[in-house]
Amino acid sequence: MRLLVIRHGKAEERDSDRWPDDGQRPLIEKGHVESRQLGKFLDVQGLIPTRCWSSPLVRAWQTAEGIALGANGWPTIEAEDQLGFDFTPDGLLDTIRRSAAESLALIGHEPDLSQFINWLIGARSYGGVEMKKGTLALLELSTPLLPGTAILQGLIGPRHLRS
User: Fold this and answer.
1) Cα(129)–Cα(136) distance, rounded to whole angstroms?
2) Domains located in the chain, CATH noted
3) Per-residue pLDDT tens over the stretch 57-68
């Protein structure tokens, strides 16, 4: 199974006056642009998943929408609460197992995504993968889906997409 793990793009700074609910904090324009660029990259590379799950938080959902605008044939975006709230690696992996998807895009937040990737590839907390805003990690998951057995095939940030 191919897994595309994407951290949301650049968002507005935290501001409890403007967004008392931090889940409502949106992307900035640069985040929108970079999301569309990532979608174009995925399209050109033939990396269109069969399913797409996004955190329901606004900045992640807007990232998913931007990717969909840039990528032909992007699947319908599905809200997955585990990517926004109450994250546990075991819980998310169980949900992935039940999905029976051939390939899956996950769009969410830090530090959960880095922890999940490092857990999947068996990396220690030091020297592991760090997901900066707008970064894509491409993993290959073996069957059965078990922690420590995934292969990290690529890590691409927004800076790479601009060049």
Assistant:
1) 11
2) 2-162 (3.40.50.1240)
3) 999 999 999 999
